[in-house]
Amino acid sequence: MTNDDLILQTITPVTHDLGGFKVHRTLPSRPRTMVGPFIFFDQMGPAVLSVGEGIDVRPHPHINLATVTYLFAGAIDHRDSVGSLATIEPGAVNLMTAGSGIVHSERSPTAERAHGPELSGIQTWIALPEKDEEMDPAFEHVPRDKLPVIETPGAKARVVMGSLWGVSAPTTTYASTIYADIMLDPGGSVPIDAAADERALYVAMGEATLDGMTLEPMTLYVVRPGIAATLRSASGGRVTLCGGEAFTTPRHVWWNFVSSRRDRIDEAKRAWTAGEFARVPGDEKEWIPIPAVPKTVSYP
């Protein structure tokens, strides 16, 4: 089987230096906006910040999507406008469903700042099906001991969302979704099944191959539908698998807003500028203003 038989698309990241750490973004991109319900894919770090420093993502809004935060190292305090306060640590997942509208902030905990915070993980956004786009906003934190882990000689995989390899995560899903954190020891391997409509692989650390094809780090590989293959690592690696059902209706992205309707995004822009979104309890003093010229992306 050739590389073209295995891989439908290869998406290289756009890297942003945020001062102290880098973010590598592969979705949305010019060649492709979504893989299954996933419409945003960022790798944060890995980085170690200076003592006394931390990340401070000020309150900002979302609509018609769900954010998914999963860490490899470090910790982040999440606060939102429905009153949630949760500290996420490695191996757990934060799922924030924006629905009709939510505001949240993400900051390094005080205890982490005291010794120089680590930051390493994946943040994704999931588009909501049209029937769920205007649902009530919600938040759930699933601790690491509640997420199923599959272990085989030389490999371990934590199922973050959906059902994979015969086990299911308790994390809420709105469309058929697969999301797993795969940890490969030297010589380890796992099968990549063909069940989902759309799937992508991303090497976050180390190295890996798919049926002998080298997967470059920090690159999103969209696997061809219907193809089953074996993911393997000679020296060890950490790989994210994501995907799920293909969306058949367009999604539009503008700044932090995702929707099937452009006019809904226009209304969200107006409402944020007018101060009509709810505030974040405990983090009311700051907020991120709408940027002057954010990029607009349409799918398909």
Strand-residue fraction? over 45%
Task: Report helical residue fraction.
Answer: under 10%
* Broad shape: globular
Which assembly state applies to the chains in this document?
A: single chain
What is the gyration radius calculated from CA atoms?
19 Å
Largest sheet: 8 strands, antiparallel
What is the typical, i.e. mean, pLDDT? Answer: 95
Helical segment count: 3
Low-confidence stretches: none
Determine the N-to-C terminus distance: 28 Å
Return the string of H and E elements: HEEEEEEEEEEHEEEEEEEEEEEEEEEHE
E-strand count:
26
Going by helix content, strand content and strand pairing, the class is mainly beta
How would you sum up this structure, described in words?
With 300 residues, the chain is mainly beta. It has three helices and 26 strands. The strands form five sheets. Strands 1, 13, 14, 15, 16, 18, 21 and 23 form an eight-stranded antiparallel sheet that branches. A seven-stranded antiparallel sheet has the order 2-3-4-11-6-9-12, with no helix packed on it. A hairpin with a 2-residue loop joins strand 14 and strand 15. The longest helix has 12 residues, at 262-273. The chain is globular.
